[in-house]
Design a protein that fits this description.
The strands form three sheets. This protein has a six-stranded mixed β-sheet with strand order 7-8-6-9-10-11, sandwiched between helices. The protein has a five-stranded mixed β-sheet with strand order 1-3-2-4-5, with helices on both faces. A three-stranded antiparallel β-sheet has the order 12-14-13. It is α/β, with parallel strands linked by helices. It has 15 helices and 14 strands. It folds into four domains: 2-116, GTPase HflX, N-terminal domain (Rossmann fold); 123-149 and 159-197; 201-365, P-loop containing nucleotide triphosphate hydrolases (Rossmann fold, 3-Layer(aba) Sandwich), CATH 3.40.50.300; 370-434, Alpha-Beta Plaits (2-Layer Sandwich).
Length: 435
């Protein structure tokens, strides 16, 4: 067991937390618990002691082994901690067993992250998503709230409302979840309309994705001149924020998304679809990583983000790796990074280093995205014209003629084949030559 001195904190004294983890043999428990300690600090809890156990898998009832449970009880009492933080998602049985043994609150990894999300959610949609995730997390754990009534059993003088009250609470919670999900779907439809309007401008969309606290919001501000909130805390950004910048006469839209971590809980991936789906509909994903991390840790965070992107189906979107915080690197570290990640750009969102090169890379990737075309759509093919507008392609000119509707538009190259039968060959080239 390791005891830690609490960090000094101004104002009201933060809660004292005891950190617990179970890891496979050969795994460095100290390193594995580092992320949980940072999560704890973000939630306003100061880690004062920790305990790591190495075993093949957590005990299904007590989480730690029976022998280790005695050591945990002693260490927890000596540390004068107020809450036990566990680096796994506990089953309801494991949580109740630990709470009974320690006579203390037990918060697992998922519950801790949900608490952080609840603190940082600012938009109406973000708050709804947090509530849905919390309700779905708490549903299987409701039994403990009515445990004293369920033990009444049967017979004279023992009949009580325990189970019926439990089922009532569960039904209320499920109804609430259904209601919130309907609201979220409605908000999602509104967001889709706004996204379609953005696409109508033909500006390429770029999503910033990456491990939490790698400087995505700072990079958004540096690229676009926005004033998105920036703080050295995990999960500072929960709601998608979209801003624009211009480079070489063209406009680009950039969206900041929620940060990822290892083992991002399923409830959060599902609940925060509004932020995560911005990576699905983007034309390009900038995978921002902290280049100042040791290489093994850097690769670990990169793999964690790739796993989440793959899990939500965004791995088929073009992805460019951007190594931020280059201002913290010496020349030798920069060379090592170039050798390890030869295509990745090294930038500093704080100093502005490498941002022009990043903008040039983005412009290069989109240089052949659109093509100017002229179309003649017969009146009998009105649905094709509707498809053209639904695509959000910028229409530079439209004229009704006896033959049909003549349109000059700027189409994405991948969509030209859909309208190939309406192309007016050579007319645009002749007009350009005449000028």
């Amino acid at each position: 067991m390791t005891t830690r001195q609490p960090d000094p904190a101004p104002g009201a004294a933060p809660e004292r937390g005891f950190v617990l983890g179970v890891f496979g043999k050969g795994v460095d428990g100290e390193e594995e618990l580092a992320e949980l300690r940072e999560l704890a600090r973000t939630a306003g809890v100061v880690p004062v002691a920790e305990l790591a156990q190495h075993r093949d898998r957590p005990d299904p009832r007590t989480f730690v082994g029976k022998g280790k449970l005695g050591e945990l009880k002693t260490g927890y009492a000596e540390s004068e901690a107020e809450v036990l933080l566990v680096d796994e998602e506990l089953t309801p049985t494991q949580q109740r067993t630990l709470e009974d043994a320690l006579k203390a609150r037990v918060v697992d990894r998922t519950q801790l992250i949900l608490d952080i999300f609840a603190q940082h959610a600012t938009s109406a949609e973000g708050k709804l998503q947090v509530e849905v995730a919390q309700l779905e997390y708490n549903l299987p754990r409701m039994r403990g709230l009515w445990q004293h009534l369920e033990r009444l059993g049967g017979g004279v003088g023992t009949r009580g409302p325990g189970e019926s009250q439990l089922e009532t609470d569960r039904r209320i919670a499920r109804t609430r979840v259904s209601l919130l999900k309907r609201r979220l779907r409605a908000l999602g439809e509104q967001r889709a309309v706004r996204r379609k309007e953005r696409k109508r401008s033909a500006a390429p969309t770029i999503a910033l994705a990456g491990y939490t606290n790698v400087g995505k919001s700072t990079l958004l501000n540096a690229l676009t001149g926005a004033r998105a909130a920036v703080d050295d805390r995990l999960f500072k950004t929960l709601d998608p924020t979209t801003r624009s910048f211009e480079f070489a006469g063209k406009r680009y839209l950039v969206t900041d998304t929620v940060g990822f971590i290892r083992r991002l809980p399923t409830q959060l991936v599902e609940g925060f679809a509004s932020t995560l789906e911005e990576t699905l509909v983007a034309d390009l994903v900038l995978h921002v990583a902290d280049g100042s991390l040791p290489e093994d840790r850097l690769r670990e965070t990169i793999d964690a983000v790739r796993a989440v992107l793959g899990g939500i189906g965004a791995d088929d979107v073009p992805i460019e790796l951007v190594l931020n915080k280059a201002d913290r690197l010496d020349p030798l570290a920069r060379r090592r990074l170039r050798n390890a990640f030869p295509r990745a750009l090294q930038v500093s969102a704080v100093t502005g280093e490498g941002l022009d090169e990043l903008k040039s890379r983005i412009a290069e990737l989109f240089s052949d995205r659109f093509e100017d075309v002229r179309l003649l759509v017969p009146y009998a093919e009105g649905s094709a014209l509707a498809d053209l507008y639904a695509l959000g392609a910028p229409i530079a000119e439209r004229r009704d003629t006896p033959e049909g509707v003549r349109v000059r538009a700027r189409l994405p190259r991948r969509e030209i084949a859909r309208f190939a039968r309406f192309l007016v060959a050579g007319e645009l080239d002749a007009e350009v030559s005449a000028r």
